[in-house]
Amino acid sequence: MATGVGDGLQVGVMERRQASSVLGAVAADVASARVLIVADQPVLRNVIRTACGASQHLEVAAEVASGREALDAYRFLFPDLVLIDVSLPDTSGLEVARRLRREVPRPKILVLSGRTDDETLFESIRVGVDGYLEKTAGVQQVVAALERLAAGERLITPEQERSAIEELGRLVRRAREASDILPSIAPREIEILEHLGSGLTIRQVANRLGVSTRTVEARAAKLYRKLDASNRVQALAKAADLGLIELG
Amino acid sequence: MVSKQRLGVIVVDPLPVVRAGLALMIDDRPDMDVLAEAGTAEEALEAIPRIRRSNVCVLVSLGFEGEHDSYWLIRTIRDHFPGLAVLGCGANADPLSISRALFSGADGFLDKSSDPVEFLQSLRRGATGEMVLAGPPTEWLGAIAEGIERRRLVETTLTDREREVLKVAAEGLTARQIASRLGVRERTVTTHLGRIYSKLGVGTRVAAIRLATDAGLVSVGMPE
Description:
The structure holds two protein chains of two kinds.
Chain A: H1 7-23, E1 33-38, H2 42-53, E2 58-64, H3 67-77, E3 81-85, H4 93-101, E4 108-113, H5 118-127, E5 131-134, H6 139-150, H7 158-181, H8 187-197, H9 202-209, H10 213-226, H11 232-241
Parallel strand pairs in A: 1-2, 1-3, 3-4, 4-5
Helix pairs in contact in A: 2-6, 3-4, 5-7, 8-11, 9-10
Chain B: E1 7-12, H1 16-27, E2 32-38, H2 41-47, E3 56-61, H3 70-80, E4 85-90, H4 95-104, E5 108-111, H5 116-127, E6 132-134, H6 141-157, H7 160-169, H8 175-182, H9 186-200, H10 205-214
Parallel strand pairs in B: 1-2, 1-3, 3-4, 4-5, 5-6
Helix pairs in contact in B: 4-6, 7-9, 8-9, 9-10
């Protein structure tokens, strides 16, 4: 039964927790796993809440719509499972997951992503979530995943692992490239890049550094070659990708 | 990139029994065989140029220590034989060692604690250049990625001088002692340290040293 956070709830929660710990593993399949739903969209919450209600093994402890509320709710209710939408209004769902992982006791975390990119999956696995589903998976899959998590199953599939390792490979390559390139780039050139990155023109950079525009142009051209870029945009993108500068 | 040619493996491990075991496992498969074995980094670097096959993978144990340690060997192979696939091979290796191996240039990592079938499958895939990680649990991916990013941070944002200061600071010396060791003024050292903290995004010397240790810049343990 979904409920908000409040005084009257407190007693119920304490009894519940004491009861669960006394009954322990023997009662694991009798007591439903309690779920905290963290999602911004009301429609999504409703759909999931209803589906969880239909499940024998799940019980929605609470629903919240933001990251901040999620942490508060967790520390109050200590649900067994937390379902988190990756995109939340106040923070990233993965940041919430990261914080929840440090809680004691630690909940099982299922992340829902509206994106289909490898990076989000990789970041989720890095954070250490227990399951990752794309929203296209459908409600039944989400509920099934929650039930399996409650039963102690591992949800990260071999395909997801493979994809995450591939992404790790890209991270390694970029890191190595950065450290290979960097010795050949002077601090002055990084400075020029940073200024260009914040939107200054060549002339403005020249003024800033107290040199002629021709000097800046020449150094910039040299820099683009080192970065294997044919123009400023590419160079900035490459430099940011390698972690040499920060953009935006 | 699938090759019809049999995969040739060069086994580099300090322990003879391990080399023999790996050779048995590999020669048992129809699609791969051991081309050479090496017990030291030097032996490995002598054996590699003699190999005539094009589909080759070098398996480098992380057990080599000293000046020409495993990471040195991986980096050297990467620098001098860029087309060659190199895989790090550990025995219950920790995330830090794994991230160091990858950062040094290994195309992937295989742990001897993994299932032999998985080990060989990953060896095959790793030889084609695909990143493989056999043995370490998925839960370690975060720590491994962290180790690599820290290494990059330390290597790309710090100047040589700053790295030097950090290395000496890691020995537990005071700013004055560091200054004395490096032959500069104490003020210079504190300025450097301030810049280091800012670049690494940390607030204390302990945190900076921790980060540097994680990145493999300084090693924790008995000095030689």
